[in-house]
């Protein structure tokens, strides 16, 4: 279950946004994508989901070239995407929002996913019947994460998942993501800050002005020792 | 900057006025009508900059036209300046009465409410047989400060008058669009919440634009009535208003001259297609429209006045 | 301490079954810097919204100076000198960054916005540029908003809120979405500017480093209530706060 | 060129009025133009080729789009296309808007169809003529028909389209009825929107009010829809229907049109003209047969009015040419020739008797519908013909005043 | 029968028709965010198609079983949806998704103009009649008044159509997926939704409903050019009154307009022309976004 980007280039209106980004996320690996504002993190995420139109480069999933694959078909491969700006369906309830991917994809077991998410974020249980449109910013973030967790059976793409989330909850979430490793799920997390648990990530790619400038290997044992 | 604008206005006047020498009679009339309608559309463009589109601008077009006609027929006023002033004042008052009410509506609701107002006027005029009902009224040719031209002289005088009004109104509106309040209008279109939280009144912005649109509509209506020599409730019918909206969108809200160019193009296309395709002129017009929309989705104005920023 | 500028008394707000504010009482002295922390959905933004007029409290009073501003329109409250920024940046999406600043500038220009004065007038542009430069976003000045990354939007939002004469500034999560190495410089910048003119500041924040560094006093929200209201160290060591908001200390 | 005479024709090619008026009128017109251009196809005095030997060329423009558009198109026709004469206008609004421009441009213009009396009662024009009688005669004839057939009218109601045509027709009809049936009670006056299509509510109102007679000046789709819905609900059995201008829906409705409806055709047009016989039989039959052969349906009122306009124009052109020595007449010469002119048309003798020779009067007829099952066609029975001066006001009298004063000077046989 | 009851019955009959005409408009707006001016033309095409189909049905010996003409009418509407739906949606409208609302109005206005003449080219200007289905269901006598059974069938059709659309949108997963697409088509794609199919489906459903409105009206009118023009504004008004995109809103809007119109015809015929605008203005005065306004997502 590995994801590979090869020399991806994206331009918007002739302005280069990504300039030859290469990136690999191994099976079960938790990879970080860090960089300053405007570095291109979100654009990398959108490239992987198929929303950004690439001008050059390739995207591989398990060795298969999915560069030309439509976003919808990528979703069916088991990609779960949590966008930076949440993007819930306001007229649906919290629960329906999270179930939506399961409705259109038979491979997803909706009820089981829900159970898992409620376990992880019990706050959502009480919100379940509320319409998504009135939730607070952080609450929406939780729902978007829950939705991505249900949809993403193979690859989780989380764009700034902790932004605006209270620290107590952020901690809990990163613990859970860490615990997912046994299930062969690959995770890519875009972040503009690094203050969260060092356990969370195994490696991180640093992006600057649309280029990956280096990849750090994070040694959890070192961190613990320090 | 200011200087450039005034220079451009003078140049526009000269170019347009030259039409009175070059253009054949039929074209001069067509241009005069198009420019008069363009004034109404300019008002819509002003509103468009604030994010609303009035589908009822026929209201003011019609009020202007009827005010002039009734004043001419009942009080014998024939001076074009007086008539224009009178209609503009009436429309100003009506605009100020409805403006505050409409200013809290947006999008399609604004469009439909303004349409309802103009349709009520249409309906009322249609029922008033005393002033011609649906058949309307005729209005005699205007005089110009006591001068009463006829034939080609009349056409020329009317044409020069429209051109002068258009250039003045266009210049003033350009001043407004470029002004601080003009920018706030654009901001309102994008994000009312932000504008309110900066401490400006969104309703105020909307009301001003509506009132300006009203006055321009009234002036356009007056000139159209005088040029045609005839008014009828159709001036307030939704298809008339729809045509104004059409021109406004065709022009886009970036450029003032584009509004008048669009108005002229529409008149020309319509006139020739109804002559050459008497049975399928609507089809021809529809195809023309689609082509324009596809080629110039931001309106004609985008040809000359691209918003900067895209290429940064 | 100096006299209070903002006095919130027994404010209640419910949305259907959700209680977003329950017996909220806060007194903010002039020139103070307060921060609001709390779990997600605790009612922080609701508090800001009520003070700035977006939401009318069900009951209770909000006094600014000697008038009750509860239920006044945002515009009126803004004109009184209470400004705010937004959790989700509120920008004019079809205008450039510079024009967004010009809008703020025009509305706050001393004689009120004019029908004739050019918005893009050289002086106004210089002022706008100066502000953008201070916020390190001048390089984006000719870009349209949708082209901006999240962080830049956030900064512009704050920059716009800071135009004009402010007495109280409410910042809703000013640093969320801002890259970590920018957070402190930005806060320094904002706070310096505000403190220099004696502005009272209330900011909502999830980053405890920011909270401890910049605020004099912290209000911790949970479930529509204020569960702690004290100096930062005190609040952050409160067990309830640790449990619901900050998480157990590492 | 001097060997062709170019006419601009304006009539409805789209919208509601296309089917009932515009298209059949120009179908008739085109037919006549072709016949004239060929020459010798018609009985004297119309046996000469074209207009005075000139070939007729027609430029046709759609009348849809409102008076504003028509004024512009008129200017285009005259100034850009340089037509020698304009023949057109079904809509009253257009007929009111165009004449001042025609005079301004000194363009000879024939209004061929529209009905409002206001054109020449409220204005006077040098270059504008109307070759059809105005609408007052339609409703007065209907009232006279009731009287002459001793039809009892204790009460009546109206259903008319909500625009000048419908409003004026109803005013004329009530005006005439006040004179002829002073005791008749006016029940309800309904004015459904033009093009409404749905008359359910109106029919309920009419059924509830129980008037003895229902008057309607509706035309086209509005009339057809009303008739279909009214007959389905039995209105025609509970009240006498009187349609002042309804003959043109016969070819389409056929047996769906109930028997016993009193029906006018705005002149001795269509079935009434065919049934009339007399001196004009040859001319009428020639046109009738040619039309039927070409279009597979019989001509209703609209082509008749187009014919009377074109025959009038031909007569005027030829008269002017006789006066000026045979050259193509100018607008002034045409106007002089047309003024007070009389000529024969399939619809009867047309006299430019009103408005100082600019407004025609013509005879009228009202009949009763009767389905002839054997022949499979609708017939008009019990037809009464009215002389032009019986149902049209005399020169110098406004039609509203004439009705209000009890038709002084009416010359009925 | 007393006046109130007559007004109610007349109002209901008119409302039933209005609702069928409007519900497709509201649906298309709700899903595609396009205010479809060409809806009126689709209505007219439905009427023409229905007239042709029913005509053909009887010409092919349908007399033996006249009720089959109802099937022919519905088939006509289906046919219109199958042909024009994909043509317009795939061929044109999809290029304008997410663009300015008014621009889309203009696009559909152009389509309206084109279709108006296209109809003339296909069916000519002569009217079509298919009165058979109108009288087939017999008379209904209510007090002293006769109604045509068909009128009540139209009410029934309106109820069925309304329930079907409402249930699909609100009680099925498909409906909820549609909601997601309406709100954010891009995000829906990344969750695996076949957005194109939803758009196409919604537009075809809207086309079908417009055509059905025309098809059901065809038997009681003469089908002539220009039929669609008047329908658009009325349908707009109903949809605005009810709140754009709301099916129950369209139903209540249709009822309000239907009944006030009937009341005006019976009591105060002079006002009939204004009544629809009057109702609309009153409703908008108190509810600026119509009766069932779309809930706005929280912005701050
Ligand atoms: N529609 C667009 N048009 C032009 N430029 C764009 C557009 N969208 C994004 N960009 C530019 O692309 C660059 C990368 O943006 P992106 O959103 O990927 O950054 P990011 O790393 O996610 O930043 P942040 O941490 O602030 O979210 C930015 O400089 C941004 O201005
Ligand atoms: N307009 C509204 N309608 C209904 N419920 C609302 C509304 N605004 C807020 N709420 C609810 O009130 C509660 C408090 O929301 P608020 O936005 O104040 O939270 P917050 O503390 O700012 O959270 P966050 O840190 O996630 O931004 C939440 O449960 C929210 O869903
Ligand atoms: Mg980002
Ligand atoms: Mg918040």
UniProtKB/TrEMBL annotation, chain A:
Keywords: Amino-acid transport, ATP-binding, Nucleotide-binding, Transport
Domain of life: Bacteria
ABC transporter domain residues: 3-226
Pfam families: ABC_tran
Gene Ontology MF term list: ATP binding
InterPro entries in alphabetical order: AAA+_ATPase (IPR003593), ABC_transporter-like_ATP-bd (IPR003439), ABC_transporter-like_CS (IPR017871), BCAA_Transport_ATP-bd_LivF (IPR052156), P-loop_NTPase (IPR027417)
Xref: PANTHER family: HIGH-AFFINITY BRANCHED-CHAIN AMINO ACID TRANSPORT ATP-BINDING PROTEIN LIVF (PTHR43820)
UniProt similarity note: Belongs to the ABC transporter superfamily.
Name of the protein described by the UniProt record: ATP-binding cassette domain-containing protein
Automatic annotation (TrEMBL), chain B:
TM regions (residue ranges): 27-46, 58-75, 81-101, 108-125, 158-177, 210-229, 244-269, 281-300
Keyword set includes Transmembrane helix: yes
Keywords attached to this entry: Cell membrane, Membrane, Transmembrane, Transmembrane helix
Superkingdom of origin: Bacteria
Localization of this protein: Cell membrane
Main localization, broad class: membrane
Topology versus the membrane: Multi-pass membrane protein
Transmembrane found in the keyword field: yes
Pfam family, one: BPD_transp_2
InterPro entries tied to this protein: ABC_transp_permease (IPR001851), LivM-like (IPR043428)
Record protein name field: Branched-chain amino acid ABC transporter permease
Organism from which the protein derives: Hoeflea ulvae
Automatic annotation (TrEMBL), chain C:
Keywords: ATP-binding, Nucleotide-binding, Transport
Pfam family, one: ABC_tran
CDD domains hit by this protein: ABC_Mj1267_LivG_branched
InterPro entries: AAA+_ATPase, ABC_AA/LPS_Transport, ABC_transporter-like_ATP-bd, P-loop_NTPase
Full protein name: ABC transporter ATP-binding protein
SUPFAM superfamilies: P-loop containing nucleoside triphosphate hydrolases
MF annotations from Gene Ontology: ATP binding
Originating organism: Hoeflea ulvae
Keyword Nucleotide-binding carried by entry: yes
ABC transporter domain location: 6-248
From TrEMBL, chain E:
Taxonomic lineage: Bacteria, Pseudomonadati, Pseudomonadota, Alphaproteobacteria, Hyphomicrobiales
PANTHER family xref list: ABC TRANSPORTER ATP-BINDING PROTEIN, BRANCHED-CHAIN AMINO ACID TRANSPORT SYSTEM PERMEASE PROTEIN LIVH
Species: Hoeflea ulvae
Top-rank lineage group of the source organism: Bacteria
Protein family: Belongs to the binding-protein-dependent transport system permease family. LivHM subfamily.
Segments crossing the lipid bilayer: 12-35, 42-61, 67-89, 101-125, 145-169, 198-221, 227-255, 267-286
Main location: membrane
UniProt-listed InterPro entries: ABC_transp_permease, BCAA_transport_permease
Topology with respect to the bilayer: Multi-pass membrane protein
Name this protein carries in UniProt: Branched-chain amino acid ABC transporter permease
Cellular localization per UniProt: Cell membrane
Keywords annotated in UniProt: Amino-acid transport, Cell membrane, Membrane, Transmembrane, Transmembrane helix, Transport
């Amino acid at each position: 279950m590995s994801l590979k980007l090869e020399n991806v280039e994206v331009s918007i209106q002739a302005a280069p946004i990504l300039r030859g980004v290469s990136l690999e996320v191994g099976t079960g690996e938790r990879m970080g994508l860090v960089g300053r504002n405007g570095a291109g993190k979100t654009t990398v995420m959108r490239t992987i989901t198929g929303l950004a139109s690439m001008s050059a480069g390739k995207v591989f999933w398990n060795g298969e070239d999915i560069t030309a694959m439509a976003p919808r078909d990528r979703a069916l491969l088991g990609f779960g995407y949590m966008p930076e700006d949440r993007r819930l369906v306001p007229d649906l309830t919290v629960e329906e929002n999270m179930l939506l991917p399961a409705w259109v994809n038979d491979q997803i077991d909706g009820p089981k996913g829900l159970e898992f998410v409620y376990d992880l974020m019990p706050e959502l249980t009480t919100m379940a019947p509320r319409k998504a449109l009135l939730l607070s910013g952080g609450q929406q973030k939780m729902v978007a994460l829950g939705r991505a967790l249900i949809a993403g059976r193979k690859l989780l793409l989380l764009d700034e998942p902790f932004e605006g989330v209270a620290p107590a909850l952020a901690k809990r979430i990163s613990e859970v993501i860490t615990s997912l490793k046994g299930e062969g799920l690959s995770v890519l997390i875009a972040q503009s800050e690094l203050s969260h648990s060092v356990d969370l990530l195994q490696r991180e790619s640093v992006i600057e002005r649309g280029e990956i400038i280096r990849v750090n290997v994070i040694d959890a044992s070192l961190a613990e020792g320090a | 900057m200011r200087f450039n604008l005034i220079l451009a206005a003078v140049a526009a006047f000269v170019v347009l006025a030259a039409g009175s020498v070059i253009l054949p009679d039929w074209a001069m009339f067509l241009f005069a009508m198009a420019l008069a309608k363009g004034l109404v559309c300019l008002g819509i463009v002003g509103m468009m900059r604030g994010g609303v589109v009035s589908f009822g601008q026929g209201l003011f077009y019609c009020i202007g036209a009827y005010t002039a006609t009734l004043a001419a027929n009942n009080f014998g006023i024939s001076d074009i300046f007086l008539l224009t002033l009178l209609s503009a004042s009436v429309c100003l008052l009506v605009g100020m009465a409805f403006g505050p009410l409409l200013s809290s509506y947006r999008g399609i609701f604004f469009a439909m409410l303004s349409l309802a107002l103009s349709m009520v006027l249409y309906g009322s005029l249609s029922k008033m047989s005393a002033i011609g009902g649906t058949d309307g009224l005729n209005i005699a040719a205007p005089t110009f400060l006591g001068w009463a031209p006829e034939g080609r002289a009349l056409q020329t005088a009317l044409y020069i008058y429209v051109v002068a009004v258009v250039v003045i109104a266009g210049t003033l509106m350009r001043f407004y669009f470029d002004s601080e309040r003009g920018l706030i209008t654009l901001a309102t279109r994008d994000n009312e919440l932000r504008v309110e939280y900066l401490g400006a009144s969104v309703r105020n912005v909307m009301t001003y634009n509506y009132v300006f649109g009203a006055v321009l509509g009234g002036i356009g209506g007056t000139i159209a009535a005088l040029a045609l020599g005839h008014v009828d409730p159709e001036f307030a019918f939704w298809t008339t208003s729809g045509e104004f909206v059409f021109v406004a969108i065709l022009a886009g809200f970036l450029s003032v001259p584009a509004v008048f160019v669009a108005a002229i193009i529409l008149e020309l296309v319509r006139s020739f297609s109804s002559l050459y395709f008497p049975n399928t002129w609507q089809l021809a017009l529809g195809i023309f429209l689609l082509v324009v929309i596809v080629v110039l989705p931001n309106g004609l104005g985008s040809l000359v006045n691209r918003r900067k920023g895209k290429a940064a | 301490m100096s006299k209070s500028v903002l006095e919130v008394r027994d404010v209640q707000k419910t949305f259907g079954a959700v209680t977003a504010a329950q017996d909220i009482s806060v007194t903010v002295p002039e020139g103070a810097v307060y921060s609001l922390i709390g779990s997600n959905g605790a009612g922080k933004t609701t508090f800001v919204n009520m003070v700035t007029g977006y939401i009318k409290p069900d009951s209770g009073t909000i006094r600014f100076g000697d008038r009750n501003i509860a239920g006044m329109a945002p515009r009126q409250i803004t004109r009184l000198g209470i400004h705010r920024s937004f959790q989700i940046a509120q920008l004019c999406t079809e205008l450039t960054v510079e024009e967004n600043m010009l809008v703020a500038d025009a509305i706050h220009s001393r004689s009120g916005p004019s029908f004739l004065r050019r918005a893009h007038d050289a002086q106004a542009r210089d002022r706008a540029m100066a502000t953008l430069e201070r916020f390190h976003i001048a390089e984006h000045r000719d870009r349209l908003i949708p082209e901006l990354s999240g962080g830049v939007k956030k900064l512009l939002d704050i920059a716009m809120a800071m135009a004009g004469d402010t007495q109280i500034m409410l910042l809703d999560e000013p640093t969320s979405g801002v890259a970590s190495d920018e957070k402190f410089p930005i806060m320094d910048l904002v706070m310096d500017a505000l403190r220099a003119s004696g502005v009272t500041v209330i900011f909502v924040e999830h980053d405890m480093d920011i909270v401890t560094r910049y605020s004099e006093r912290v209000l911790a929200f949970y479930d529509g209530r204020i569960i702690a209201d004290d100096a930062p160290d005190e609040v952050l060591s409160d067990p309830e706060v640790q449990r619901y908001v900050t998480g157990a200390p590492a | 060129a001097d060997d062709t005479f170019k006419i601009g024709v304006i009539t409805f090619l789209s919208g509601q009025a296309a089917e009932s008026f515009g298209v059949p009128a120009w179908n008739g017109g085109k037919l006549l133009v072709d016949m004239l251009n060929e020459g010798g196809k018609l009985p004297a005095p119309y046996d000469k080729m074209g207009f005075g030997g000139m070939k007729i060329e027609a430029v046709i423009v759609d009348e849809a789009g409102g008076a504003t558009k028509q004024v512009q198109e008129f200017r285009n026709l005259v100034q850009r296309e340089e037509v020698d004469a304009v023949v057109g206008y079904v809509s009253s609004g257009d007929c009111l808007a165009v004449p001042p421009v025609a005079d301004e441009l000194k363009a000879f213009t024939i209004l061929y169809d529209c009905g409002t009396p206001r054109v020449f009662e409220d204005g006077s024009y040098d270059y504008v003529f109307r070759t059809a009688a105005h609408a007052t005669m339609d409703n007065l004839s209907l009232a006279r028909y009731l009287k002459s057939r001793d039809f009892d009218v204790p009460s009546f109601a109206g259903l008319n389209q909500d625009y000048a045509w419908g409003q004026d027709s109803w005013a004329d009809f009530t005006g005439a009825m006040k004179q002829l049936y002073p005791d008749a009670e006016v029940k309800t006056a309904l004015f459904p929107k033009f093009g409404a299509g749905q008359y359910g509510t109106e029919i309920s109102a009419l059924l509830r009010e129980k008037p003895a007679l229902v008057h309607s000046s509706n035309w086209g789709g509005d009339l057809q829809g009303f008739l279909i819905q009214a007959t389905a609900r039995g209105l025609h059995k509970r009240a006498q229907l009187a349609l002042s201008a309804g003959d043109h829906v016969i070819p389409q409705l056929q047996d769906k049109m109930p028997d016993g409806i009193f029906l006018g055709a705005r002149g001795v047009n269509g079935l009434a003209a065919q049934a009339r016989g007399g001196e004009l039989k040859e001319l009428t039959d020639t046109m009738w047969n040619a039309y039927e052969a070409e279009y597979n349906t019989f001509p209703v009122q609209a082509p008749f009015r187009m014919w009377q306009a074109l025959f009038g124009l031909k007569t005027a052109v030829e008269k002017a040419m006789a006066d000026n020595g045979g050259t193509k007449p100018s607008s002034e010469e045409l106007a002089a020739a047309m003024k007070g002119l009389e000529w024969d048309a399939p619809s009867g003798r047309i006299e430019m008797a009103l408005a100082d020779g600019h407004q025609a009067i013509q005879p009228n007829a009202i009949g009763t519908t009767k389905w002839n099952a054997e022949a499979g066609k609708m017939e008009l029975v019990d037809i009464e013909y009215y002389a032009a001066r019986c149902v049209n006001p005399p020169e110098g009298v406004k039609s509203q005043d004439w009705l209000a004063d009890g038709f002084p000077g009416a010359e009925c046989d | 029968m007393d006046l109130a009851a007559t007004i109610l019955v007349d109002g209901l009959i008119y409302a039933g028709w209005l609702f069928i005409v409007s519900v497709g408009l509201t649906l298309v707006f709700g899903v595609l965010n396009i205010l479809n001016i060409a809806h009126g033309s689709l209505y007219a095409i439905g009427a023409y198609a229905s007239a042709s189909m029913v005509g053909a049905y009887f010409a092919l010996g349908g007399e033996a079983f006249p009720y089959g003409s109802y099937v022919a009418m519905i088939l006509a509407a289906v046919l219109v949806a199958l042909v024009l739906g994909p043509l317009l949606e795939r061929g044109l409208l999809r290029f304008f998704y997410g663009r300015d609302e008014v621009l889309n109005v203009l696009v559909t206005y152009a389509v309206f103009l084109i279709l108006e003449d296209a109809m003339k080219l296909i069916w000519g200007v002569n009217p079509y009649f298919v009165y058979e289905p109108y009288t087939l269901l017999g008379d209904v006598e209510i007090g002293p008044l006769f109604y045509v059974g068909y009128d009540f069938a139209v009410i029934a059709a309106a109820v069925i159509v309304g329930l079907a659309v409402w249930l699909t949108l609100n009680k099925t997963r498909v409906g909820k997926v549609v909601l997601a697409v309406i709100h954010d088509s891009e995000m829906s794609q990344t969750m695996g939704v076949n957005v194109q199919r939803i758009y196409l489906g919604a537009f075809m459903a809207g086309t079908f409903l417009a055509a059905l409105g025309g098809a059901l009206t065809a038997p009681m009118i003469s089908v002539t050019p220009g039929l669609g023009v008047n329908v658009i504004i009325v349908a707009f008004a109903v949809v605005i009154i009810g709140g754009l995109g709301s099916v129950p809103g369209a139903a209540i809007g249709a009822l309000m307009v239907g009944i006030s119109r009937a009341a005006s015809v019976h009591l105060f015929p002079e006002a009939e022309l204004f009544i629809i605008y009057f109702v609309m203005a009153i409703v908008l005065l108190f509810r600026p976004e119509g009766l069932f306004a779309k809930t706005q997502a929280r912005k701050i």
